[in-house]
Amino acid sequence: MPATPDIHQIRYLFTDVDDTLTTDGRLLPETLAALYQLEAAGIQVVPVTGGCAGWCDQMIRLWPVAAVIGENGAFYFDRDKAGRVEYHGWDSEQTRSERQQQLLALATRALQQVPEMQLAKDQPYRLADVALDYNQDVSGISAEQRDQVLTLFHHAGAQARASSIHINAWLGDYSKQAMSERLLKQKFGLNDAAIQQQVAYVGDSANDEPMFAYLQHTFGVANIRPWLPSMTHHPRHILSANGGLGFNELAQKLYPHQH
């Protein structure tokens, strides 16, 4: 058995956004305060989200975070030494655009099969992937309907995962985990051993499994519990509160120990 990782060594906290940082769809003032406290304690926070590029641009500009990974790993935004926002894509602009057109055609087929779903309202602000809303501004979608759409994308050779609100589909070999690893090595200069010692991840659903499998320091907010029976890779620790209040609980474990 490997030794239990030491939480006091954590210097980087990667976090899902929807229903992990947010609570009932909103960023609570105490969760925003926790982000500032983590920054003051020298812990670099990186949101890792299926959220669109438009959201991610807002996050890197307005939140106290070191970088933002968006659209399930299609890109990350950070700032240069002068404070200007920079974009780092996994694929070339041409490849990214061509693949998104293919995905939109698949999404049209999916919506013909399950017309109760709809394209996510943030789809116009996405650069790489496609998001179908099954549980944000839409309700009443069954697990069978959700899985039917996931299967359609998978059979077409796309990657697709269900978050707590959307089905995100993309073409390519990137993922939350792959882009997190690239960022940690390129931006922060960490090797594999340092990543396992110093990086933590917190999430809320099955689409966070690749991160739970990748890192030793892993946490689930309490609302992950309904997902656990369908997951192979679980977080090492489950927090007692839901959403952003669970994130706060984790933050308080981390920053009292930092200098």
Structure description:
By secondary structure, the chain is α/β, with parallel strands linked by helices. Helix content is 36%, strand content 19%. The protein has 8 helices and 12 strands. The strands form 3 sheets. The protein has a 5-stranded parallel β-sheet with strand order 2-1-10-11-12. It has a 4-stranded antiparallel β-sheet with strand order 6-7-9-8. Strands 3-4-5 form a 3-stranded antiparallel β-sheet, with helices on both faces. Helix 7 links the parallel strand 10 and strand 11 (217-220). Helix 1 (29-40) runs parallel beside helix 8 (243-254). The chain is globular. The two termini are 31 Å apart. The model has no long low-confidence stretch (mean pLDDT 95).
What is the straight-line distance between the termini? 31 Å
Q: List the strand order in the largest sheet.
A: 2-1-10-11-12
Please compute the radius of gyration using only Cα atoms: 18 Å
Q: Assess the beta-strand content as a share of residues.
A: 15-25%
Summarize model confidence as the mean pLDDT. Answer: 95
Listing every helix as H and every strand as E from the N terminus to the C terminus, the arrangement reads EHEHEEEHEEHEEHHEHEEH
Global outline:
globular
Structural class: alpha/beta
